[in-house]
Design a protein that fits this description.
With 306 residues, the protein is an alpha/beta fold. Helices cover 25% and strands 30% of the residues.
Length: 306
């Protein structure tokens, strides 16, 4: 079973703190001196209450950031996120491992694609993976008859390149990136990988770098919890998203993503420590202990001074 420790290890290739290099004005041009200027750590997050509903009236005094076990409450800024729309990429496992449940999963995907008119047609895409490589099923025309037919007739079976599919999906997201639009990968899978060239670390690094948030839909039978289920939940948590079980119904997946978007905040603060390496991140409530915070669970800092 993959643990949170494995996920944290997998994230150690990702640099989320931006550094600016500037040449010293007094230095000899033949031997330039570079300084690393870390402006701030930026964390986008949302909070939910005891009923798992997003909170859109949060105040800065209601939470603290724990950065590498250092408590941060002196924020440089705290404001609502400037992202106002979603770019939804449904990433669908059609491999042999989910074959008994695939038709139900495809119906679920069609429901997600068609149900939420608040997401523009051009901001919905469907990718599939099974066999040796992922494929684009539809992009921007998924609600039409052609997109529906292509999804219903997608090639099924084969091995499961889950991590390769996440890298493929992340690269797809980057090519479509538009400022102010939040990319969301809705991952339909059982959490099994059998053939990927990329590792879990590669996959999470690619997703994090793309800025996407994973909302995972677990296709495993409810009565058979597995390490794949654990991985799906932890990947969603690591990117600041949510985890759903297919048996509970997926009608609320996009509704939840939109609710989270509207209730998202951006907090910035000065880097509390220049320790090189992985910085774990947690957001904790200061008053209402029923609040739960959803954000990326860390970043990697590398001192750029040479």
């Amino acid at each position: 079973m993959l643990s949170l420790r494995h996920l944290r290890s997998a994230l150690r290739g990702l640099l989320l703190v931006s550094c600016t290099l500037s040449s010293s004005q007094t230095a000899d041009f033949s031997t330039p001196v570079f300084r690393s200027t870390v402006s701030e750590v930026r964390v986008t997050f949302f909070a939910t209450d005891e009923r798992n509903h997003s909170i859109d009236t949060l105040k800065p005094e209601e939470f603290a950031v724990v950065d590498n076990e250092r408590v941060v409450r002196n924020f440089r800024s705290f404001l609502h996120s400037d992202e106002t729309a979603l770019d939804v990429v449904a990433l669908v496992d059609v491999s042999e491992s989910v074959a008994p449940r695939l038709q139900v999963a495809i119906k679920d995907v069609l429901q997600v694609v068609s149900q939420e008119q608040a997401v523009a047609d051009e901001n919905i895409s469907v990718l599939s993976f099974g066999g040796t490589r992922p494929a684009i099923v539809c992009s921007g025309n998924c609600r039409g008859a052609r997109g529906r037919d292509r999804l219903l007739n997608v090639k099924q079976g084969g091995t499961t390149p889950l991590f390769d599919a996440l890298v493929f999906g992340a690269n797809f997201v980057v090519r479509r990136h538009t400022p102010g639009i939040r990319p969301v990968i809705v991952l339909f899978s059982d959490g099994v990988d059998t053939i990927s060239i990329n590792s879990l670390r590669d996959a999470l690094t690619a997703v994090m770098t793309s800025g996407a948030v994973i909302y995972s839909v677990d296709l495993n039978p409810a009565q058979q919890p597995s390490s794949g289920s654990t991985l799906l939940e932890e990947m969603a948590t690591a990117t600041g998203g949510r985890y759903f079980r297919a048996q509970a119904g997926i009608a609320n997946v996009l509704k939840a993503a939109l609710e989270d978007l509207r209730a998202s905040y951006l907090v910035t603060y000065q880097l509390p420590s220049r320790e090189v390496g992985f910085h774990s991140l947690r957001l904790l409530p200061t008053h209402n202990l029923n609040l739960r915070f959803h954000s990326r669970n860390g970043y990697y800092y590398e001192n750029a001074i040479r």
